[in-house]
Amino acid sequence: xxxxxxxxxEAAGAACAGLITDGMRVGLGTGxxxxxxxxxLGARVRDEGLTVVGVPTSDASGLIAAEAGIALGDxxxxxxxxxxxxxxxxxxxxxxxxxxxxxxxxxxxxNSARRLIVLVDGRKIVPTLDDWxxxxxxxxxxxxxxxxxxxxDLGPTRxxxxxxxxxxxxxxAVPAGSDWVQVADRARGLAGVLDHGLFRVVLSDVIIGHADxxxxxxx
Length: 219
Hints:
The protein is 31% helix and 24% strand. Strand 13 and strand 14 form a beta hairpin. By secondary structure, the protein is an alpha/beta fold. The protein has two domains: 2-127 and 200-212, Rossmann fold, CATH 3.40.50.1360; 129-196, ACT domain (Alpha-Beta Plaits), CATH 3.30.70.260. The longest helix has 17 residues, at 32-48.
């Protein structure tokens, strides 16, 4: 089963890398599917002489990109494209990111990109985000205890390690049937909460990889 999922990520990553053209500035996501995309892009750089600049969303992705031969740049100028994975995506395009703790940088790059491609396997497409059940938060460490107290009804759990930017990572257990947008807005409104992991994506830009090497979209 693990090999099937890896094959699916590789298929999605290769399809995404095929969309990138010479001279692009590209946001590089974090996680296993994004890693497949980074490696596929690196193969094009190596084999075809493709010239791109990658802007990574995490230290780990930066290392993988550098090893793959992708030139790295800083955020700032508009990105032509960004690609990333996801923890769960529902049929309305609501998406959870942040299992890897990189959702703040992921949102920064997604917002600065002309197009965001999301790479997943079929398991990540769910009828409702209740099937995932977790909303991650990035919180200023000084405020972590206060935020957890304010959100005690959502069973907050602080992860043992902080984000690459030194933010405390807190996971909320969102009850089934909740309005996820409302929960995210409530959390974001608290002092010290920098961001949350709820995104909205374009389903036609969600590439689903399959174990046989084919891809489809979520649209």
